[in-house]
Structure formats: structure tokens, C-alpha cells
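Hi team,

As requested, here is the filled-out complex form for the PRP run. I kept the field names the same as last time so the parser does not choke. Let me know if anything looks off before we queue the next batch.

— J.
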Amino acid sequence: MATSASNYKKTYPISWEQLHRDSKALAWRLLGHDPFKGIIAITRGGLVPAAIIARELDIHLVDTICISSYNWKDKKGNAEMLKTFEGDGEGWLLIDDLVDTGRTAQIVREMVPKAHFATVYAKPAGRPAVDTYITEVSQDTWILFPWDTESQFVTPLVGQDKK
Ligand SMILES: O=P(O)(O)OC[C@H]1O[C@H](OP(=O)(O)OP(=O)(O)O)[C@H](O)[C@@H]1O
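And here is what came back:
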């Protein structure tokens, strides 16, 4: 994500089950498309959805585009391209978990302009950059992916009142 947590007003927690269900829904939608040569997963968020979609579409050829956005999230630096992809992406399916501001999408689109770009979740600012997505989420929502979170104890409501 290219913006800081302070820009978000809501959270949207996603369980492993829901992520699996939403990724399968994306695979269903892509089933109508001509068969793909392979999948390009955008690291790291695209890795899990790519695995689920590869299974559903019976795709065994999986490559990556590796981007690190440290120092980039608050627009303080540039995204670091750790691994690119050979070719223009024609016939390939490009997968990410989320398109938020669309900055990542812009970079990968320039690299593989002919790939079909699909994400599980999409926010309005980035939505025009993707060809297929499943769930739209508002721009001010922070999506809590299952790999970024864990269950923990929370104080009962009454206890919170006594603080
Ligand atoms: O549309 P954008 O504003 O560019 O945001 C979307 C990108 O942000 C997330 O990656 P992140 O930078 O958190 O890296 P990670 O997947 O390695 O955790 C997500 O996986 C997308 O690649």
C-alpha cells in the first residue's frame, strides 16, 4: 500500500476462509477467459491468491514480479524492483491481492502491458487499472489480510467502560 495507516478510517478483517472463497470466486470469473499460459504473482500479496487460482484453473507455470515498497508507502522513496518478467505478458494472468492507490498496478502494467491483470480486492482509485476483480472496498478502509494478523484477547465491553 502506498499510503500511511492514518489515511484509513475503517478496517476490514479477512479470514483465511474468506480469502480462499474470494480467490475461488475470482478463479470462477476468469474461467470464461481463454486459457492462460501461466500466472505471474506480484509479491508478496499476490502469492496466496495466485496459488489458489493456479489450483482452480489447473495452471502449473507460475512466475513472479517481485517489488519491495519499503520507504515507498508514505511516498518517501521509490518502489524497489527485485525481479522483473521477461516479455510483454501476452497470454499471462497477472495476480495481486489488492489494488489500492494503483501505484503498483501502474508499474507492473508498464512491464507486462499485455497480461490480464486480476486482483481479489479493489479500491476505487486503483480499480481502472485492473481487468478483473471480485470485491470492491472503500478507499478509506484498511484491509487486514490473514497473513498480517492473528487472533488475540480483547477486553469485554464492560471492562472497557471502566477504564
Ligand atoms: O495500489 P497500491 O497502493 O500500490 O497498493 C497495492 C499493493 O500494496 C500491497 O503490497 P505491499 O506494498 O503492502 O507489499 P507486500 O505485498 O510485499 O506486503 C498489495 O499487495 C499490492 O501489491
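Two things worth flagging: Residues 9-159 form a domain with the Rossmann fold fold (CATH 3.40.50.2020). Residues 1-2, 42-45, 69, 96-105, 126 surround PRP (CB under 6 Å).

Thanks,
J.
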